[in-house]
Specification:
Length: about 400
């Protein structure tokens, strides 16, 4: 896999925020050494978030996001500010670009929002080349403000840009993920069997991202990956000299696979592994229990992190709703969302079932989970919910140490 093929969710997301004409776009262009964003003296030139995937040393693969000004006005301006807030939910680190000696009310509001979202932040005090003053009484040009480091920079001259990059790298490195998708659960030489259903909902000629990531992670662990279909799983297992260290199945095949794989062999799913990898497995396990409490006309949000063409056997909009209604025996109201379209108001929902979130980065998933918790809505994911309904949730999380 080349650098440019690094999945979006696996890249470090760096968002640049601030008022119109604070120099966000100019600073993005300076950091990337490319004309990523259109620059103009006219306020509001950036009307939609602009994303650039690249390698930024010493971080490696990153996605840099230039956002519309947080002080935009009018009906369209409100929509642009809304898009900026959406971007913040996806960021691993926020760079607040300012130019004045004090914070504008909109900048103060934005900084408070960044703090509320618990996103690491660096304040880039731009336009030092024209003598812009430091932020806050008593703060030095390389001091702090509100607990965040202040880095003086000039998008025009390049002054301070390397220091800003180093500060970004330092902030990101402190929160580097240590959990692996599979590799930390297996040992060198182990055999792992991956069960991948091939039906009308399977993409033609390729594997979906969690399956690709699992294979690569197993190879990185110097273990053996065996890929098979549900139909060939019995032959695959019987052909092995020893039991595999782990069997990983697509969640939608849990019902069939659990009957084939003996109890002595550890069994889990890609989606359950992804919940652990994204950092919300414990919450997903607890949230799955709410399925048993659903009543008639309960409102269930089924959220997917990607957008794709729906097939007749689509798991999110067809199979999962059918399984829920059969398991609960209730008349449930289903609401479906995809991509970055996640509701702002969750109070009307009784349960949220999210996909594996392989296309979303950790912060976006975490913020979706936190929003659910703040609204008092149980939050789980496909694989955890399906394992619960099949009565094997305990079995599927045991290999993961829960």
């Amino acid at each position: 896999m080349s650098l440019n093929d690094t999945p979006m969710a696996e890249r470090t997301h760096i968002g640049f925020f601030g008022l119109r004409n604070a120099g966000k776009s100019s600073l993005v262009n300076r950091i990337t050494n490319q004309q990523v964003s259109l620059v103009s003296e006219i306020k509001g030139t950036t009307t939609d978030p602009v994303r650039k995937s690249m390698e930024l040393l010493p971080l490696g693969p990153v996605t840099i996001i230039d956002t519309p000004g947080y002080d935009d006005e009018g009906l369209l301006g409100e929509l642009r500010v809304g898009r900026t807030k959406e971007v913040l939910a996806t960021c691993d680190i926020a760079v607040l670009v300012i130019e004045g000696k004090t914070l504008d009310p909109s900048e103060t509001e934005l900084l408070d929002l960044i703090r509320t979202r618990r996103v690491p932040c660096i304040i880039a005090r731009n336009k030092t080349d024209i003598g812009a003053e430091s932020v806050g009484a008593g703060d030095s040009l390389t001091g702090t403000f509100g607990g965040f480091p202040v880095i003086p920079v000039s998008a025009k001259s390049g002054e301070g840009v390397e220091a800003l990059k180093e500060a970004i790298a330092g902030a990101v490195k402190s929160g580097t993920k240590r959990v692996r998708l599979v590799a930390d659960l297996i040992s060198k030489g182990d055999t792992v069997v991956l069960v991948i259903p091939i039906d009308t909902s399977a993409p033609k000629g390729r594997l979906i991202l969690p399956q690709q990531q699992a294979i690569r992670d197993i190879l990185d662990a110097d273990a053996v990956s065996m890929v098979t279909s549900v139909e060939q799983l019995p032959n695959t297992l019987s052909g092995l000299k020893d039991d595999p260290a782990l069997v990983i199945t697509d969640s939608q095949a849990f019902g069939k696979v659990m009957k084939i794989v003996p109890e002595r062999i550890p069994l889990t799913s890609f989606s359950v592994l992804m919940a652990r990898y994204k950092g919300f497995l414990e919450e997903a396990v607890e949230g799955a229990k709410a399925i048993d409490c659903l009543r008639d006309h309960a409102k269930v949000l089924i959220a997917e992190g990607c957008t794709h063409h729906r097939q007749c056997e689509d798991i999110g909009t067809v199979k999962l709703p059918a399984w829920l209604k059969k398991y609960t025996g209730k008349d449930l109201e289903m609401v479906f969302t995809s991509g970055h379209g996640y509701p702002d108001d969750l109070n009307d929902f009784d349960l949220i079932i999210h996909c594996g979130a392989c296309m979303l980065n950790d912060n976006e998933v975490r913020n979706r989970m936190i929003a659910a918790q703040e609204s008092g809505v149980p939050f789980t994911n496909y694989g955890t919910a399906i394992a619960h309904m099949n009565g094997i949730l305990g079995r599927s999380i045991t290999p993961l140490g829960l």
